[in-house]
Write a structure and sequence with these properties.
The complex is a heterodimer of chains A (486) and B (257). Chain A is of the alpha/beta class and 486 residues long. Chain A contains 12 helices and 22 strands. Chain B is α/β, with parallel strands linked by helices. Chain B is 36% helix and 28% strand. Chain B is globular, with a radius of gyration of 18 Å.
Chain lengths: 486, 257
């Protein structure tokens, strides 16, 4: 009889874990694509297409030459098939006149695509409190509300435009938080990065709206190499959000990003991600490889950086948004929900590097695994010898749906100062049959009950998301796990 | 008058162990039935089986509920059709607020009857109105389902949910267990306020105490998976006086003979 119950549950899992990915469509857009493969000429070509200054080309070439000496990292709890880096297209751009300034210049098919993704690029259609930079494949196609933000001295544009219009700012900050020598994928990104956002919030300015970048991979066979740089000057504040989707394809596509954030005295940056790259089908075919280096340098006194991520997509995720707490009293936060199902693999977490006295950090990680997936938390809390009075609190929870998935926790703690207080809590749980039956008895069907319970479990993190996205993210979480009970 | 619930020769087991061994029970609208019996007699199993808990397997018999074959319905459809179980041990669901939980429940029921979801303001009004039935305060809405509730609050919360869902058959499974006298009174008064000529209640209890507050029309005694005695309210009093050993010895003697 118990066997019967189990079989029943398993069939529910199998039935429903294939819930539809509504962003899986492709758009027919006239695209400028270069040939497959990577060498110095390709890098020169990318740089030329973007009309970059000589120093940036030199930076790319240095990174490329360094990359050639590296091998992909193998320490993560991931099974990554060998990637043929010569079989990837490193630049694909929707054809358009050089950097469209008004909507009339944007391909209507592009506008339609972003509309379908729920991101209207007409300013009047957007949430009043949000500005958007839309990135398709290798280039930014439109950034909204730029004029309004410019009145406050805020720069919000695509990275490529920043290179042209604010070369001094870019030169001053590029690679200062994530060096091209940081790791294999950081070197690759530094050599071939395509587009992303550039944000500069001047001294004393609180950015009045959410800044958001929406990344879309469209072209087949391409990699996307996002590069984002955010600088919050003294006493500034900004809340930034990124969203990501990609078409449903049988091939694996690489997204190797670098995000660098610099937080000056008393400034605060909130960085939220809703990552919903195509995750591969129920048999594990296709899906995006999301290999990302994200790091913020809190170098100002009492500066603050908060990462919030909801990770539901990608076939493989390798991502550790981190905080380097170099200013006295700086604070780092990391709130994460990572969902894996089918054959997805995620190895994600954070690093909190306490370099200055009285710095503090909080880590809340909620992993949810279903199907045959593998979900790992990997985190480092490091306190330097002369950083006295530091605090860290880490809470690391795993929720298992079904019996074929895995949840793993790899916390590293490296404390060199006796005055530090470092706490770590971890739990692993399953959705109990009692909880499901209780919901059922009240009339709530099992799929909806799982959505409720999972959202309840992830609430602490979901609450950190900006309002406009919290609702979307909740729906996403429920949909993603529809019926993944066992 | 029509029958609300008709249980005929119901057998149910968990694994290889048969727990219910031929239950017969008929309930009409407006009636309150008490089911009493010693520990392990099958009282909670009966309530679980009626509510559709998948832990148990029905091996024989039939249950008719409002003219429908209850055993063919999923647990959630049984709920929509008007069957409510007040759990002996209400389950905690961390992070899920009562307001979200009840909204999901109410809207699922509306959906079952092809009606649109309840507008938010109407729903909040309903919550306010119903929580007064069991004297729960306004913090209830934002608290997680049963998480950190005291024993009394959990049981009051069950009756609150019953008030919102307006079932035609409520099964109160040992609602008196773990309650102090004040909580018992509040819970019982709540149940009495919800009583109408059209609905019925099954009160499952070990003790007479609760029946001082919720007056049964009919009292059944369950022992070893069968209803061995059925009588009026006086049966509960007699049982209280003589204890379960009285039943046990009578039945066991009969079996031996």
């Amino acid at each position: 009889m118990e066997q019967e119950v189990k079989d029943n549950n398993n069939s529910v899992i199998e039935d429903v874990t294939g819930s539809e990915y509504k962003y899986g469509f492709t758009s027919d857009i006239d695209t400028d694509v270069i040939g497959r493969g990577l060498n110095e000429d390709v890098i020169r070509l990318i740089s030329a297409k973007k009309g970059e200054p000589e120093w940036l080309l030199e930076y790319r070439l240095k990174a490329y030459r360094h990359w050639l000496t590296l091998a992909p990292p193998t320490w993560a709890h991931l099974n990554i098939p060998e990637i043929d880096f010569q079989d990837i297209i490193y630049y694909a751009a929707p054809k358009a006149k050089d950097g469209p300034k008004s909507l009339d210049e944007v391909d209507p098919e592009l506008l339609k695509t972003f509309d379908r993704l729920g991101i209207p690029l007409e300013e009047q259609k957007l949430h009043a409190g949000m500005a958007v930079d839309a990135v398709m494949d290798s280039v930014s196609v439109k950034t909204t509300h730029r004029e309004k933000l410019a009145e406050l001295g805020i720069v919000f544009c695509s990275f490529s435009e920043a290179v042209k219009e604010y070369p001094e700012l870019v030169k001053r900050y590029l690679g200062k938080v994530v060096s091209y020598k940081d790791n294999f994928y950081a070197a690759l990104n530094s050599a071939v990065f395509s587009d992303g956002s550039f944000v500069y919030i001047p001294k004393g300015v609180r950015c009045p709206m959410e800044l958001s970048t929406y990344f879309r991979i469209n072209a087949s066979g391409t990699g996307q190499f996002e590069r984002t740089l955010i600088v919050a000057d003294d006493d500034a504040y900004v809340s930034y959000l990124e969203g990501c989707t990609a078409p449903r394809r049988d091939e694996n596509q690489l997204h190797a990003a670098i995000v660098e954030i610099i937080v000056e005295n008393r400034a605060e940056v909130k960085y939220s991600t809703v990552q919903n790259w195509w995750a591969g089908d129920e048999r594990g075919r296709g899906g995006v490889y999301n290999f990302v280096t994200k790091r913020g340098l809190c170098r100002g006194v009492d500066s603050k950086l908060s990462w919030t991520q909801v990770e539901t997509g990608s076939a493989i995720t390798w991502k550790y948004p981190s905080c380097v707490l170099a200013g006295e009293g700086a604070r780092g936060e990391f709130y994460s929900v990572a969902v894996t199902r089918n054959y997805q693999q995620a190895d994600t977490g954070t690093k909190m590097i306490h370099l200055a006295p009285n710095t503090s950090s909080t880590i809340v990680s909620k992993g949810i695994s279903a199907g045959h997936s593998e979900n790992s938390y990997r985190g480092l809390v490091k306190v330097a010898p002369n950083a006295s009075g530091c605090r860290n609190y880490t809470q690391c929870d795993s929720l298992l749906l079904g019996s074929k998935c895995g949840a793993h926790t790899f916390p590293y703690v490296d404390v060199m100062n006796d005055t530090a207080i470092v706490e770590h809590e971890a739990t692993t749980s399953k959705i109990s049959e009692d909880q499901l039956f209780y919901c059922n008895q009240r009339g709530i069907p099992t799929e909806e009950a799982v959505g409720l319970i999972v959202n309840g479990y992830a609430k602490e993190v979901m609450n950190k998301l900006p309002m406009e996205f919290a609702v979307e993210a909740q729906k996403l979480l429920s949909l993603t796990l529809e019926g993944s009970v066992g | 008058m029509n029958e609300l619930l008709k249980v005929t020769n119901l057998h149910a087991s968990i694994g290889d162990k048969e727990i219910l061994k031929g239950i017969n029970l008929t309930i009409k609208p407006g009636e309150v039935h008490a089911i009493m019996g010693p520990n392990g007699s099958g009282k909670s199993t009966l309530s679980s089986v009626l509510a559709g808990n998948p832990t148990f397997t029905v091996t024989e018999g039939s249950v008719e509920f409002n003219g429908k074959d209850l055993l063919q319905l999923s647990p959630e459809d049984r709920s929509h059709e008007g069957l409510f179980l007040s759990f002996q041990y209400p389950v905690e669901i961390p992070g899920v607020s009562m307001v979200n939980f009840m909204r999901a429940a109410v809207n699922a029921k509306l959906k079952y009857f092809n009606k649109p979801p309840m507008p938010a303001n109407e729903f909040l009004k309903l919550m306010r109105e119903k929580r007064a039935v069991v004297e729960l305060d306004n913090k209830l809405a934002s608290r997680s389902v049963n998480e950190g509730f005291s024993g009394g609050e959990k049981k009051r919360n069950e009756i609150f949910q019953m008030a919102v869902l307006e079932p035609c058959l409520s099964i109160l499974d040992e609602t008196d267990s773990g309650l102090d006298i004040d909580a018992l009174r509040i819970v019982a008064e709540g149940v009495n306020k919800l009583k109408t000529p059209d609905n019925a209640t099954i009160v499952i209890t070990h003790y007479q105490r609760l029946l001082d507050y919720i007056k049964p029309d009919i009292v059944h005694i369950l022992y070893k998976g069968r209803i061995v005695y059925t009588g009026g309210p006086e049966l509960a009093l007699e049982l209280e006086e003589k204890g379960y050993d009285w039943i046990k010895s009578q039945i066991d003697n009969k079996e031996e003979a």
